[in-house]
TrEMBL record, chain A:
Keywords: Cytoplasm, Exosome, Nucleus, RNA-binding, rRNA processing. The lineage of its organism: Eukaryota, Fungi, Fungi incertae sedis, Mucoromycota, Mortierellomycotina. This is Exoribonuclease phosphorolytic domain-containing protein. Belongs to the RNase PH family. GO terms for biological process: nuclear mRNA surveillance; poly(A)-dependent snoRNA 3'-end processing; rRNA catabolic process; rRNA processing; U4 snRNA 3'-end processing. Residues 42-171 form the Exoribonuclease phosphorolytic domain. InterPro entries: ExoRNase_PH_dom1, ExoRNase_PH_dom2_sf, PNPase/RNase_PH_dom_sf, Ribosomal_Su5_D2-typ_SF, RNase_PH. GO terms for molecular function: RNA binding. Its main location: cytoplasm. Residues 19-39 have a biased composition (Basic and acidic residues). It holds the Pfam family RNase_PH. Residues 1-39 are annotated as: Disordered. SUPFAM superfamilies: Ribonuclease PH domain 2-like, Ribosomal protein S5 domain 2-like.
Automatic annotation (TrEMBL), chain B:
Transmembrane segments: none annotated. This is Ribosomal RNA-processing protein 42. Keywords: Cytoplasm, Exosome. GO terms for biological process: exonucleolytic trimming to generate mature 3'-end of 5.8S rRNA from tricistronic rRNA transcript (SSU-rRNA, 5.8S rRNA, LSU-rRNA); nuclear mRNA surveillance; nuclear polyadenylation-dependent rRNA catabolic process; rRNA catabolic process; TRAMP-dependent tRNA surveillance pathway; U1 snRNA 3'-end processing; U4 snRNA 3'-end processing; U5 snRNA 3'-end processing. It comes from Dissophora globulifera.
UniProtKB/TrEMBL annotation, chain C:
GO terms for biological process: CUT catabolic process; exonucleolytic trimming to generate mature 3'-end of 5.8S rRNA from tricistronic rRNA transcript (SSU-rRNA, 5.8S rRNA, LSU-rRNA); nuclear mRNA surveillance; nuclear polyadenylation-dependent rRNA catabolic process; poly(A)-dependent snoRNA 3'-end processing; TRAMP-dependent tRNA surveillance pathway; U4 snRNA 3'-end processing. It holds the Pfam family KH_6. One of its GO terms (molecular function) is RNA binding. GO terms for cellular component: cytoplasmic exosome (RNase complex); nuclear exosome (RNase complex); nucleolus. Component of the RNA exosome core complex (Exo-9), composed of EXOSC1, EXOSC2, EXOSC3, EXOSC4, EXOSC5, EXOSC6, EXOSC7, EXOSC8 and EXOSC9; within the complex interacts with EXOSC4 and EXOSC7. The catalytically inactive RNA exosome core complex (Exo-9) associates with the catalytic subunit EXOSC10/RRP6. Exo-9 may associate with DIS3 to form the nucleolar exosome complex, or DIS3L to form the cytoplasmic exosome complex. Exo-9 is formed by a hexameric base ring consisting of the heterodimers EXOSC4-EXOSC9, EXOSC5-EXOSC8 and EXOSC6-EXOSC7, and a cap ring consisting of EXOSC1, EXOSC2 and EXOSC3. Belongs to the RRP4 family. Keywords: Cytoplasm, Exosome, Nucleus, Phosphoprotein, RNA-binding, rRNA processing. CDD domains: KH-I_Rrp4_eukar, S1_Rrp4. This is Exosome complex component RRP4. It is found in: Cytoplasm; Nucleus, Nucleolus. InterPro entries: Exosome_cplx_N_dom (IPR025721), Exosome_RNA_bind1/RRP40/RRP4 (IPR026699), KH_dom_type_1 (IPR004088), KH_dom_type_1_sf (IPR036612), NA-bd_OB-fold (IPR012340), S1_domain (IPR003029), S1_RRP4 (IPR048565). It comes from Dissophora globulifera. PROSITE patterns: S1 (PS50126).
Amino acid sequence: MDRKRVAGPELSVAPLVEYPRDHKRWTPQDEQRHDTKRQPEDMRPIYLKTGLINQANGSAYIELEKTKLACGVYGPRPGKRTGFSGHGVLNCEIKFATFSCAKRRGHMRDPQEKELSQILSQALTPAVRLDLVPKSTIDIFITVLESDGWGSCVAAAITAASVALAHAGIEMLDLVAGCSAAYIPSGPSIASPTPSATDATNATGPSLAPRIFMDADLEEEKYEQGAIVLAYMPSLNEVTHMLQSGKAEGSIVSQSVEHCVEACNKIYAVMHHALVESVGENK
Amino acid sequence: MPGLISPAERDYILKGIECNIRADGRQRADYREVTLETGVISQTSGSARVRIAGGTDVLVSVKAEIGPVQVDPETGDGADKGQIVCSVECAPSASQQFEGRGADDLNNELTQMMTRFLSNSTSNPSVSSTASAGAGGINLSKLCIIPGQQCWILFVDALVLDYGGNLVDAVFMGARAAIYDTRIPKTEVQDLGDGQFEFEVLDDAEDTEFVEGRENMPICVTLNKIGARHIVDASPLEELCTEARLVVAVNRSGELCGQQKGHDGGIEPSLLLEMIQFGKTTGQTLIKQLDARLQEEADADLAKRQRGEPVHKLGFFAQ
Amino acid sequence: MSISFHSPAVRTTNDGVVRRRAVGHDMDLDDGLEGAAESAMKDPTLHVVTPGELITSDTAFMRGHGTYIEQEKVLSSVAGVVDRVNKLISVRPLHTRYTGEIGDVVVGRITEVAQKRWKVDLNARLDGILMLSSVNLPGGVQRRKQESDELQMRTFFMEGDLVVAEVQNFFADGAYSIHTRSLKYGKLRNGSFISVSPGLVQRSKSHFHSLSCGVDVILGLNGYIWVSAHVSQDLEEIDTEQVYSNKNKEDITPADRESIARIANCIRALAQNFVFINATIISFAYEASLQYPLKDMHKKEVMRDIAVEATTAVDNMRG
């Protein structure tokens, strides 16, 4: 039992929020996205800056409109592992702040966060030259301050961690960019298939094929029938992680993988810019 | 000693996979023989045991219990749906690396994977209102007894008894077989008026129903990338040589119900798409054969019952 | 892509298993005895005992492994078969970890690199120790050990490497001290590794066998077996600089790989059916297996048939 904190009553209910009378909730039937400024293939603008945490060897802060998270990298520092190991160890820990999601999260890491930490480590390990730092550990700590869409959180975490690793001066093969997409079913009104001109042959017919929304936010995710998160190394042209959930046809999945790869290339440019700026400042 | 392999063995396995002759003579796309039996545990609503020749042994049980519905505070969703709760545990006796805390990470990973592919996705506790069945295919609305109050909760628990490689596929095959075998008692709901309901669970052992949507449950195909090729059903030594692993969950109609990459390597996008396609076709074949086997077993049991013979499940050592 | 599902079936006890009279007091070491208890139950000369069971009250016998004396009676301390050699009574357990003698040839996997020694996993209760002074250093048998060798131990053997060695001595706590001082011992390459129960490998004159199908087999007495492509080796021509290389030979053809896989599967088939393993029976099993396609060899029925045919062939050979 957690004796250190006052937890509050066990059964708590979120307060009722009354929206203004003319507030219209977004549904997939709408022509546009929840954020009307965006097209289905657009990502949210990214604000990425290094150097947020002084104590850490490297750090990065990323904002995708309402998704905010901070990443700190410590290392390479001596590892606690006994026994020989020819290469270093990447230890990732991700924690959602208790106030970051709609429903308050606990202080302890729950199984979902533990799995996310594993996913993060699997996404970043192919890029880091761990063979150059034997017997050492590189610790990556991510705190999610505000979460607007689970997929975008994971993607932003991967992106921020790569930038923080580079900021810490750790040798890497390439930067890893992460991006996410959701499959939103189109409403009864015939929705235009995804704008990409490539094969849009949908086995279920044009009116029923889901639309691919890049970087979906929380409102859009409520209606998703599937989602994908992809981590990609642009220079080496390798996918370092892929996570797809929900039901989808094979063609939709292939399409979304291609869209995500393109988006990762764009994100890479942003990461590059942020790093160059930080190096420039310090000079 | 688990977890260690020599560079010479690694090279031998790599080159063997390149010329399509694996260390035990199989081809890249060959599975080992799978022994499957359902209804092995009497205290459950459904159970199955999957053994892969070479040592993997997984026992999956389904228990149907009655509990309160889980309503999402924001959307009000879930009031008329049942739930599926999955868990996977690797018994410490299964392998030396599983004792103590060693299996914790693996247990968590497999549990999250099962939850993601079978019930609602872990990212969104609220399922999209357009589909009352999540990716798992099970009709959750049918599991509701009194909307807003009580529903059936299916606890799907997998126990890994022995490790011989390829745990994920075995766990999902077992889950599908166990749910196929599951029988849920019928309930009678009485309207007492005033919004009050009372229900009674019919005790008749014969009057049970199958889980609706069980044919649409997905199974997984694990593809291990070694060198520039990929194999299915890896043995423990092959798993140690794996650079990257892709788990593809596919259902009977060929829809992809989830994918997850594992291990510490990268996959080139075109190879990734190829692996997804291969996983999809392999998975569909696997489901057909699995269903045929389950049907065969069910028919044999029915025939025995009709002849008045007792249906005995063979003991745990039956080969 | 192929996958087969199998249903567990009751095995009739007389299912073509070749039961042979135990030649308990015969010193012939090349027997292919059926070690299973079922044949013992039918065969009166095999005496199976459990811990605490009385073997004999005759004090004229000397007691060996697996027995203890209480009140002038010789009792068994393990579950196994009584072995009587002239005046020496011992009990040979059915399933055991490796307990070895000086002079045994063993195959082991390096688990740890410590100061001036390597720890080797031998499937025994303690790890074996391979001292730096017990290995041949590259550059000739007579090369003296230098300081730099101690710092570079990992260039010789690393964690995970497989070695074939001979038991030289015991340490006080019972750990085996092994050596690779002959040119036929050393690091293993060009093949794949199998693990069987230690009791199934019998002591014989040589443990290095070169089979007619172009495959070399090393039968470690600790149950670890190495199957590899044939490397023609003249002891004078061995390149002493290359003894610690991790590179496999370049020209392992697909046909070689198939033979290696086939032999490996034969050994697994023999082990699963509790048949003693030696070079003759492996050759017979190989011939018996040629009628089955390589990818079917992991099926239980096929393995059983191969084991049965091999034992019959050995019997016929003895006539």
